[in-house]
Amino acid sequence: MKQAIVVRTDLGMGKGKAAAQVAHASLAAAEAAMQRKGGWYEAWKEGGQAKIVLKVASESDLRDVFRKAKSAGLPASLIEDRGLTQIEPGSATCVGIGPAPDAEVDAITGKLKLL
After folding, report:
1. Which of 10, 54, 85, 100 could pair with 112 as two cysteines, CB 3.0-4.6 Å apart?
2. Coil/strand/helix, residue 10
3. Is the pTM of this model over 0.90?
4. Is the predicted pLDDT of residue 83 greater than 90, yes or no?
5. Distance CA 38, CA 18 (A)
């Protein structure tokens, strides 16, 4: 079991901003898993909460990843920033996927590169 967080690199977020957005995505996706796939969440939690952080270069790529994850029935969250600091309000910054079985996450994110 693992969780994948996908981050946009074209926004020019600072390291701290990106870290905060990744945290939002991780928590939101985990909460979705707790509600819809409780067994997956528990197995992931007990197994050490494995995570991987990946990157995409555009909003359209990020939204495509989110659509694919939702279509596959995976717990997923799309994070849109409030625009209080570095980026425009409503900007999609990250997607959290899972926790879910490794193979199901890899089917969506396997071709993406590490952040």
Report:
1. 54
2. coil
3. yes
4. no
5. 28
